[in-house]
Amino acid sequence: MPLYHTEDQAMLADTARQFMADEGNIAKQLRHFRDMDCKDGFGHALWKQFAELGLTGILVGEADGGLGMGHVEAGIVLEEIGRNLTPSPFLTSSVMAATALGAASEDLKGRYLPGLLAGESVFAVAIDEGPKHRPERISARAERSGNGFKLSGKKAFVVQGGSADMLVVAARTAGSDDDDAGITLFAVPKDAAGMSMEVVRLVDSSQGAHVTLDGVQLDADAVIGEVDGGRELLTQVLNAGRIGAAAESIGVAAGSFDMTTTYLKQRKQFGKLIGEFQALQHRAAHLYSELEIARAAVIKAQQLLDAGSEKAELMVSVAKAKAGKTAGLAVKEGVQMHGGIGMTDEYDIGLYMKRDRALAEFMGDLYYHAERVAQISGY
Amino acid sequence: MSDPDSFRAEIRAWLEENCPAEMREPVRDEDDVCWGGRKFKFKNEAQKLWLERCAAKGYTVPDWPKPYGGAGMSPAEAKIWREEMNRIGARPPLSSFGIWMLGPALLKFGSEEQKVHYLNQIARGEVRWCQGYSEPGSGSDLVSLQTYGEDKGDHWVVNGSKIWTSYADKADWIFCLVRTDKTNKYQGISFLLFDMESPGVSTKPILLISGNSPFCETFFDNVKVPKHQIVGDLNRGWDVAKYLLGHERELISGAGGNDRLNTIGAFAKRNGLEDPLLRAELAMFDVDALAFSAMGEKFLDEIKVGKAHPAQPNMMKYAGTEINKRRHELLMAAGGSAALEWESEGSNGGSKARSWLRTKANSIEGGTSEVMLNVISKRILDLPGA
After folding, report:
1. In chain B, fewer beta carbons within 10 Å around the N or the C end?
2. Amino acid B1: pLDDT
3. Domain B129-237 belongs to what architecture?
4. Which domain holds residue A105?
5. Is B16 marked active-site?
6. In terms of CA atoms, which chain A residue is nearest residue B80?
7. Which residue in chain A has the smallest CA separation from B284?
8. Model-level pTM?
9. What is the rounded distance in angstroms from the CA atom of residue B271 to the CA atom of residue B278?
10. What CA dihedral angle connects A109, A113, A115 and A120, to 10 degrees?
11. Beta carbons of A67 and A60 less than 8 angstroms apart
């Protein structure tokens, strides 16, 4: 399959670009909800508009009422989210939780998918237990209890956890902390007795929740997929999140880059447009080159994932690492090339820097994924 | 393409039947590469057979039209061809500047007679070409070239010299930039083709830091070039030259190389890999290198259907050569003192060290990295005054 968008995908990109620029732009969404100190950090009205376009169900199978599309298409939406820094539950709900629910029982699907498709529900995914992405290590435990399970443990920095109607929680039903086997995924409703949260505001105005599970009693039908055999499904959820975050990073990088090259063509110093200086031209050209390469890595990984290729695992990590590294370069060069105004809150470029930092950390940073590339490659 | 699966099956079966086992081994030495031409000596029967079989089917240049020696494959078919070649690790049957550089320029700018004549020779590996571009006084500022062709009615008389002419001493013909109007810098250059055995042509290899001499100085002393051996219009050779440079840059970038699933870290591990910081550098490199190989694939997909920015080969050249230099720096570090060996048989004649030194030219030849960044700034980013 060629590494560019099909005609249908290009049409979706046009729609998503227009929608996000009109409705999801920085003034209407990020700044608006940040400045009113919104608890959720995003707009429920916008989430409804996502649903009206069908986007909330982009990865949900057609038989379940979704669009039945793939990671290339989800990535198209995420790139526009990144470009506009649009706060939304799309990545956690429509990409990650939807991937988990794809393997759920009809009962669970019936309980949760209609709310997602209607843009009424928000989901979060609770995997990590510390400040760094370490999904290999799951300590939270689910003991058999009565007809179901009792969950205990802690989950850290659960993105949008405080706004979620349901959390997909990875817990250990067997084995020790670092075992591959013995993982089970659960759908935990927000009002489950014994679950408490402390919500913290992060640098990019998003929220992360520290979740404490203190003997949370769940019925057996809260299990998503197989008991003890959840590692494979967890990996699918992680890969969906990683490649989704990589696509969003591409949007952040592209938005920051466009803003910066525009500025290079407007700002005058020493009687010249600063874009005339070769010192800046070469840095901008290098950044362009990195951005093109990162984009290629991301679409390659998306296609491999959609094709179910065994090479996807390696390429997803390459894509997440490369996209994060490139977006990091884009925002740092962006602030520096804007000079003093790049440091002001009034100017948007700094918002790109903040979002990039949070996205880089989400689902594993450059170092985590470079390590994975080494391990998958056998060294 | 009627049906990709049956086309793939057909190619796969043909390769299975026709690609000799020796031609599925990795290229180890320079003489494993088949360059063709009047002076070329085949290393073995398999190399000769592989070239002949491919040439008979048009597979040395699969996406060229059939009347010019190709197989007339569509972009999608050519991609399947490459994938199937990579799958069995088949060596290219023929490598040549004729295929990579002159051919595309002739396809765009050549007359019908020129296409039929020269392209078929290239496709069959009968004539080996070299490139007469740089001059001692014209490096990055190529358009300042001074080699002059004086109009003598039915021919030009060419005087001057070229430098960094790759394999000039092994080539049969040269495609050469010659000034035909001294009053017009850009529109005073013509793109001429001539035989390296013409009276007045001489070459002198240049010894490089690698200890090898892939490049020559080339001298023209009253060389007669018939008028029909011009490509494109008189004094409009710069258009041909720039178009060809795009292909040269694409070539040097390494796009379309094998799917590098063997990461450099996996390779280095064979010598033992005990330094955690070196391992980390290798992993960071592999992220960039694997991402770039996706870029190579994307670039080829896009350029074949006109989706790539016309100046994109400059980006590819910049990024690809910088990656390749980094690769060889890391291979040297991973190899330790053993990689310093210069002559021994065990080191294959010092191939690691010599290859490492060779890569330093990558970001100079065909336009320096700095020139590439200038071109990206101007043509892609549209920055002011660039």
Report:
1. N
2. 57
3. Beta Barrel (2.40)
4. 7-121
5. no
6. A1
7. A370
8. 0.93
9. 13
10. 140
11. yes
Does any domain span residue A1? no
Structure tokens at B365: 């030849």
Domain ranges of chain B: 4-95, 129-237, 254-380
Interface test with B, best of A243, A261, A272, A281 (most B CBs within 10 A): A281
Interchain pair B373, A292: CB under 8 A? no
Give the right CATH number for B4-95 from 1.10.540.10, 1.10.287.990, 3.40.1080.10, 1.10.8.640: 1.10.540.10
Name the token pair of B295: 């870029």
Q: Which of 3.40.50.720, 3.40.50.970, 3.40.120.10, 1.20.140.10 is the CATH number of B254-380?
A: 1.20.140.10
Whether A243 contacts B339, CB under 8 Å: no
Q: What's the pLDDT at B29?
A: 80
What is the spatial distance between Cα B102 and Cα B191, in angstroms, rounded to a whole number?
A: 11
The closest alpha carbon to B106, from B127, B130, B122, belongs to: B122
- Residue A282, chain B, CB below 8 Å: the answer is yes
Report chain B residues whose CB lies below 8 A from the CB of A305: none
Distance CA A344, CA B19 (A): 64
Report ipTM for this prediction.
0.96
For chain B, 386 residues long, give each residue's pLDDT as a single digit of tens: 568 899 999 999 999 999 999 999 988 888 899 999 999 999 999 999 999 999 999 999 999 999 999 999 998 899 899 999 999 999 999 999 999 999 999 999 999 999 999 999 999 999 999 999 999 999 999 999 999 999 999 999 999 999 999 999 999 999 999 999 999 999 999 999 999 999 999 999 999 999 989 899 999 999 999 999 999 999 999 999 999 998 899 888 877 655 545 678 877 777 778 899 999 999 999 999 999 999 999 999 999 899 999 999 999 999 999 999 999 999 999 999 999 999 999 998 999 999 999 999 999 999 999 999 999 999 999 999 86
Chain B: closest CA distance from residue A343 (Å)? 24
pLDDT score recorded for residue A248: 98
Chain B residues close to A297, C-beta within 8 Å: 290-291, 294-295
Give the best residue of B275, B374, B377, B378 to mutate against chain A (max A CB count within 10 A).
B377
Q: Which of B6, B112, B23, B10 is nearest to B57 (CA)?
A: B10
Which of A265, A301, A366 comes nearest B383 by C-beta?
A265
Last residue of a domain, one of A78, A100, A121: A121
* Tokens 């002011």 belong to residue: B384
